[in-house]
């Protein structure tokens, strides 16, 4: 009997999701300064691909490094935050009803302040895009125009597709697991496209991708598949906010108005039983400490399938980055990457050791077959290492790095913001975001 059947059959009663420990809500000002601090870890992707391309190219000059640094600021502090603000505006009402609303860091409520908070957020989002354009004009020597245009079109092109699919796929069912639909599956696929924008930006700052189209294609597939693995694994973990533990079984409760089918459809691939002693959860049955994906999950789970695709394409990308390759070279690299990635996915616990062994296997394979530098295995090691980190988290640890960065940024920027706005305005803005009806 599945978890959903247990709930629906009445063997276990439906109960309300756990109420997370109360923590101070984000202020409106804090949100406007950094909309999604828990997503800051995604900002490592562009410098990571830039670094890999730099290693493959044998180094870059100071102008390229400066150009990359400014591009990173534009992408992660201006363009992507503006996109997040749009997402939070569209989901404002549903976010206020989320059982972990205070922990998620979305646009602060309450609902009776929707007009003022949404207006402020929309204005700041627009200002961010204006500042991105201004940087292009202020720094003409860096030739940022094409790369910033790519960022804006890529980020918001993906956002339009995402928002349309999410509107079509959610808000219709409170069943757990949520029923699968074409729109829902497409949504899981589309979410990976944003990682292509981030990653290819880093590569394009070093490599002339129009002259190396297959490198761009392989890297794009790697990034897209990794994005799908990252987001779907994170959504699966986030779905546990709607669960409680009763007699070592999970009891789920969600309503259509929560509009969380894209999370709760993933429940079908989660373990059905767990031991409360292994999650360190409180007596109320909440499972915020449950690392639901740390053990072995079905190979058919979206995050596992995507990880295998990403691992396959990562070795091909690494092989193409290190020099010309024949079709046979690419095929051997792909097979080695797929086998090693599958081993990591199936390993369950002890995955970190399997990643290390897999990286050695991949490096030796591409070297023995065609004498390719062992650097070709580095993208695979990075992708699969990131996958292991993705599936090891819980609601309690999700976004912990972003929280630490946000706290430090808040301390650093608070004096400047207070001096710029004035003490009274600062106090009003800071207090207004924390208020609750």
Number of strands: 2
Strand order of the largest sheet: 1-2
Q: Into how many domains do the coordinates divide?
A: 1
Note the gap between the termini. 42 Å
Q: Report the uncertain regions.
A: 1-22, 432-437
Judged by helices, strands and strand pairing, the structural class is mainly alpha
Name the beta content range.
under 5%
Order of helices and strands: HHHHHHHHHHHEEHHHHHHH
Rg: 23 Å
Fraction in helix: 55-70%
Counted by DSSP, the helix tally is 18
Main β-sheet: number of strands, strand sense, barrel status?
2 strands, antiparallel
Shape: globular
Please describe the structure with a list of short key phrases separated by commas or semicolons:
18 helices, globular, 2 strands, 437 residues, disordered C terminus, mainly alpha, two-stranded antiparallel ribbon, disordered N terminus, 62% helix
Q: What's the quick description here?
A:
The chain is mostly helical and 437 residues long.
Can you put this structure into words, describing what you see?
The two termini are 42 Å apart. The longest helix is centred in the first third of the chain and has 29 residues, at 62-90. Residues 1-22 and 432-437 have low confidence and may be disordered. The protein has a two-stranded antiparallel ribbon. The protein has helices spanning 3-9, 28-33, 45-57, 62-90, 92-96, 101-104, 114-138, 145-169, 182-190, 193-204, 213-238, 261-264, 302-321, 327-347, 351-370, 378-390, 400-421, 423-434; strands spanning 243-246, 249-252. It is globular, with a radius of gyration of 23 Å. Helix 10 (193-204) crosses helix 11 (213-238), helix 13 packs antiparallel against helix 14 (327-347) and helix 14 runs antiparallel to helix 15. It contains 18 helices and 2 strands. Keywords: Membrane, Transmembrane, Transmembrane helix. The chain crosses the membrane at residues 40-58, 64-82, 118-138, 144-162, 174-197, 217-237, 303-321, 327-346, 353-372, 378-398.
């Amino acid at each position: 009997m599945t978890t959903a059947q247990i709930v629906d059959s009445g063997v276990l009663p439906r109960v309300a999701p756990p109420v997370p420990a109360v923590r101070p809500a984000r202020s409106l000002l804090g949100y406007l300064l950094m909309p999604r601090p828990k997503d800051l870890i995604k900002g490592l992707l562009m410098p990571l691909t830039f670094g890999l391309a730099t290693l493959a190219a044998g180094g870059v000059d100071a102008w390229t490094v400066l150009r990359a640094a400014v591009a990173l600021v534009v992408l992660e502090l201006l363009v992507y935050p503006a996109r997040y603000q749009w997402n939070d505006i569209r989901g404002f009402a549903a976010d206020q009803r989320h059982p972990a609303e205070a922990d998620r860091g979305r646009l602060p409520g309450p609902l009776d302040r929707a007009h003022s908070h949404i207006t402020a957020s929309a204005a700041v989002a627009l200002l961010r895009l204006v500042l991105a354009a201004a940087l292009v004009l202020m720094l003409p020597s860096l030739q940022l125009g094409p790369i910033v245009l790519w960022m804006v079109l890529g980020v918001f092109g993906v956002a339009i597709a995402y928002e349309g699919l999410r509107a079509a796929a959610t808000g219709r069912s409170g069943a757990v697991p949520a029923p699968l639909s074409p729109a829902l599956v497409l949504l899981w696929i589309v979410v990976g496209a944003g990682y292509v924008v981030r990653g290819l930006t880093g590569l394009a700052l070093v490599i002339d991708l129009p002259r190396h189209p297959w490198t761009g294609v392989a890297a794009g597939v790697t990034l897209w598949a990794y994005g799908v693995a990252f987001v779907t694994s994170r959504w699966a973990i986030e779905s546990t906010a709607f669960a409680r533990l009763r007699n070592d079984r999970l009891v789920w409760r969600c309503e259509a108005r929560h509009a969380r089918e894209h999370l709760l459809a993933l429940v079908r691939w989660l373990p059905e039983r767990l031991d409360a002693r292994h999650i360190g959860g409180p007596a109320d049955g909440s499972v915020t400490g449950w690392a639901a994906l740390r053990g072995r999950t079905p190979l058919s789970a979206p995050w596992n399938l995507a990880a295998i695709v990403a691992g396959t394409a990562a070795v091909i990308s690494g092989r193409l980055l290190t020099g010309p390759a024949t079709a046979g070279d690419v095929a051997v690299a792909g097979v080695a990457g797929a086998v090693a990635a599958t081993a990591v996915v199936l390993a369950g616990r002890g995955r970190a050791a399997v990643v290390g062994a897999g990286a050695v296997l991949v490096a030796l394979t591409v070297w023995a077959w065609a004498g390719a530098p062992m650097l070709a295995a580095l993208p695979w090691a990075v992708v699969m290492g990131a996958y292991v980190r993705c599936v090891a988290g819980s609601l309690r640890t999700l976004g912990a790095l972003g929280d630490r960065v946000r706290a430090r940024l808040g301390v650093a920027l608070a004096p400047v913001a207070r001096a710029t706005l004035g003490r009274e305005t600062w106090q009003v803005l800071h207090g207004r975001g924390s208020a609750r009806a």
